[in-house]
Amino acid sequence: MKRLSRPGEGEILLLTASRLLDGRIVWLGEGEHWRESIAEATRFTYEDAGAALERALAEAEQKEVVAVYEVVAKDTQPPEPVTTREAIRAHGPSVHPDFSYDHAPVREKESAL
Amino acid sequence: MTQPASRSVGHYQYEERDRAFLQERINEFEGQVRRRLSGELSEEEFKPLRLMNGVYLQLHAYMLRVAIPYGVLDSRQLHKLADVAAKYDRNYGHFTTRQNIQFNWIALKDVPTILRELAEVDMHAIQTSGNCIRNVTSDEFAGAAKDELMDPRIHAEIVRQWSTLHPEFTFLPRKFKIAISGSPEDRVAARFHDIGLLARPSENGPLFRLFVGGGLGRTPVVGQELFDSVKEEDLIATLEAVLRVYNAFGRRDNLYKARIKILVQTIGLEAFRKAVEEELARMDRAAYRLTPEHVAQIRARFALPDLKAPADASDVLEQHKKADPAFARWVASNTHPHQDEGHICAVISLKTPGDIPGDVTSEQMHGLADLAERHSFGEVRVTHLQNLVFGHVRKDQLHELWQGLKALGLAAPNVGLISDIVSCPGLDYCNLANARSLPLAQKLGARFGDAALQAEIGALSIHMSGCINACGHHHVGNIGLLGVDKRGAETYQILLGGDAGENAAIGGILGPSFAEDEAVDAVARIVEFYLGQRQKGETFSAMLKRCGLKAFKEVAYETV
Amino acid sequence: MKLFDLSGRKTLEAASPVPFAEWKDSQQGTAISLPQDVEVEELRPYLSSLTLIVLEFPVFRDGRAFTQARSLREYEGYKGEIRASGHLLPDQAIHLRRCGFDSVALSEDANVKDWEEQLGRYQFYYQNTAVSPV
Predict the structure, then answer these.
(1) Distance (Å) from the C-alpha of residue C25 to the closest C-alpha of chain B?
(2) A34 and which of A26, B103, B556, C44 could share a cystine (Cβ 3.0–4.6 Å)?
């Protein structure tokens, strides 16, 4: 099995997937139900995430999700993914604020300078 | 059910058997979705099957890529695409560099229904993805351009039919792209396809110059000439032979080395040619002969435009231009000479500066379909630079068309100019991307959006890809931009000197990558340097050759 | 294993195939199996003594055996049975038949109905294959 990404200081892991029927992005939440909002995602420590991911993968077929994997996020309210890719998945395409999942634009990129 | 076939020009008109074939294909796909949901097919097994029907799982949803064979649509088809966008997507369609259209917000459960709706207007998503022979692309001015040697679309259709569900070549090592042009100016990037065909007429019928092993992506390669003059009757046999060699010997152990370009590079052009010739020698040539009767049959299903224009059409156009400088500017950049004196080809820019390249709304699609009906025999072409073309517009009516386009917000006078930016969807939509490409394309478009400034700069192409798979063809832009992930941050490499046409060239990487806003500034400095240093009439590529990459590098990194 | 008839041959070869590399030494029996990376030309001297050639699919996406089968029919004039074996999907039934396969070796629990349905799917095809005319 592939090694999990390791969260840094003040970071946690979330589990995400795509719904088989419509391709919609989902996050593993309470009661191991797949939720549409990242705000409802269960937070995992590095230690807990492995077993949870394995279980989620085993149940993926039955729960009609595909492409299950873990995402590193800041332990904030709601959790905020650390990579741009996952931020776009969590909030919607940055070029279409009208398509936003949370009606708030994707955070502006910090200048590299 | 469907409209009579005689309504549209420019593409093959379906017969009943073609329609029955599409219905069977949809039934087949519906069954595959059902088997996937019942667990009979695993995701691993289902994926190649859905890809061959144009269905990707992207970042936010499924994406459906609909085929537009050789880039030609008719107005009823465009109306239907507009309906699909409104009903099943978020009201947008996105035209791609392979002359297709993509919908970004599709649900898998809706796909069979969408395919049935598309089939009502003789459209499909067959082989728009997957490791098979992809949708055949062609010249956007086919059958219209003044400089054309022959209309390539008849043979493009023949290749489309031949490749559709080809039993031997549906599970190839990797995808396989064929382009065909009949122009002396290569407008299809023939040297950047797995097979590129340049058609020309001769006393004894059409001849095809065949390039093999070109491509962009991870390993950009300029295709090499395999044969100078393939005869029409040998066209299918030759394609069969090339594909057989590729299917048998193309690498399957490494995804990144599986394209035919790697095979040709590895064994060398001579050995590859020898293998193809051996296949041809052993082949039952009669079985694969493309007969004049078959060509005539296909040709008969193409309607020709009835080109009638008043004698003073050109004069009227000149008067309109004189009276309206904004129109004159649009005509200067957005038209192409037509074979018929009274007609002209109009290019509709889908690159309104600041907007997303290639995106159109459902309303715009409906509006364009109506305009095409009025001004271009209902025919619309998609270009590999993500614009649209009305092939046959009466010169005296061009002004009226332009006003219609203005009302749709689609009259940007920038075709071939710096803000006519080619871009992939990038990280905002794509599962493979490393960086976003659309925001950068939008910023560059806005930076150079001023019409007078663009006209002064002249012909200059910017191509932008969000990862090394190069869907935005960054290697062949005069200025190319490539998104790279640098320790979690999106950064952009700049390449200079690419060219997709007759002088095919792959751009050279300038140096270390830039942050997004820095990249915009660096491009601005490069353009300024070009404006300041160019000699009269000197193109960007010519000046780059004269001054060298290093001079541009110093400007871009401000090290002078 | 159960055999599914693609081409209407009716009597399918029952003999167990021997890997070609082994068979070449002994030339015992008339049934062989061939991996995808062997060129079928190598079989040329032996074809008249073979009644079954099994072409292997390590995974359904690997389509080399389609070219192998078509070469056996078209170039080598082989008239015996060609069988597909390995990881295959019913969605490939027509491809197999049109490239010259006669049969496919399915697992016991395979859904034969899917294969039958797929075989009867299309009324016409867009290209000649020079083998197994429909």
Answers:
(1) 26
(2) A26
Helix (H, G, I), strand (E, B) or coil at B186: coil
Q: Which of B168, B170, B263, B285 to mutate to test the interface with C (most CBs of C within 10 A)?
A: B168
Q: Report the alpha-carbon distance of residue B67 to residue B124 in Å, rounded.
A: 6
The whole domain housing A29 covers 11-99
Contact B24 C122 (CB under 8 A): yes
- Helices B235-249 + B260-267 axis angle, to 10: 80
Nearest-Cα residue of chain C relative to residue B242: C67
Mind telling me how many Å the CA of A77 is from chain B's nearest CA? 22
Q: Where are the domain boundaries for CATH 3.90.480.20 in chain B?
A: 313-407
**Alpha carbons B348 and B345: distance in angstroms, whole number:** 10
Do residues B271 and B249 touch, judged by C-beta distance below 8 A? Answer: no
Q: What is the mean pLDDT of residues B88-112?
A: 96
A60 within domain boundaries:
yes
Decide if C64 touches B, using CB distance below 8 A: yes
Contact B428 A95 (CB under 8 A): yes
Which of these CATH numbers, 3.90.480, 1.10.287, 2.60.420, 3.40.50, describes B5-119?
A: 3.90.480
Which subunits have 3 or more CB–CB pairs within 8 Å of chain A? B
pLDDT band, very low/low/confident/very high, at C11 (cuts 50, 70, 90) = confident
Find chain B residues with C-beta within 8 A of C129's C-beta.
167-168
Q: Does C74 touch chain B (CB under 8 A)?
A: yes
For B137-300, CATH gives 3.30.413.10
The model carries a pTM of 0.95
**Percentage above 70 pLDDT, chain B:** 98
How close does chain A come to B467, measured CA to CA in Å?
Answer: 13
- Total domain count for chain A? 1
Residues 107-146 of B with CB under 8 A from C: 131
Q: Is residue A77, in this structure, part of any structural domain at all? A: yes
Task: Name the token pair of B229.
Answer: 């003059």
Whether B61 and A24 lie within 8 Å, measured CB to CB: yes
Of B107, B435, B442, the CB nearest to A21: B107
CB B405 within 8 A of CB B430: no
Q: For A28-38, how does the pLDDT look when each residue is reduced to its tens digit (9 = 90+)?
A: 999 999 999 99
Please report the ipTM that was assigned to this predicted complex. 0.96
Residues facing residue B175 across a β-bridge: none
Strand partners, B528: none
Neighbours of chain C (3+ CB pairs under 8 A): B
* Nearest C-alpha in B relative to C75: B282
Per-residue pLDDT tens over the stretch B371-419: 999 999 999 999 999 999 999 999 999 999 999 999 999 999 999 999 9
B67-93 pLDDT, tens digit each: 999 999 999 999 999 999 999 999 999
Fold of B313-407: Sulfite Reductase Hemoprotein; domain 2 (3.90.480)
Considering the domain boundaries, does residue A5 fall inside one? no
Q: Where does CATH 3.30.413.10 sit in chain B?
A: 137-300, 422-556
DSSP string for C99-133: TT--EEEE-TT--HHHHHHHHT--S--SS--SSS-
**Which chain C residues have a beta carbon less than 8 Å from that of B20?**
123
Q: Which CATH class is domain B422-556?
A: alpha beta
Considering CB atoms only, which of B45, B164, B247 is closest to C126? B164
Both structure tokens of A58: 């085993």
Domains of chain C: 2-119 (3.20.20)
Rounded average pLDDT over A70-81: 96
Confidence label for B4 from pLDDT (cuts 50, 70 and 90)? very low
Which residues touch B82 (CB under 8 Å, ≥6 apart)? B93, B362, B363, B365, B366, B369
Spatial distance between the Cα atoms of B236 and B238, rounded to a whole number of angstroms: 5
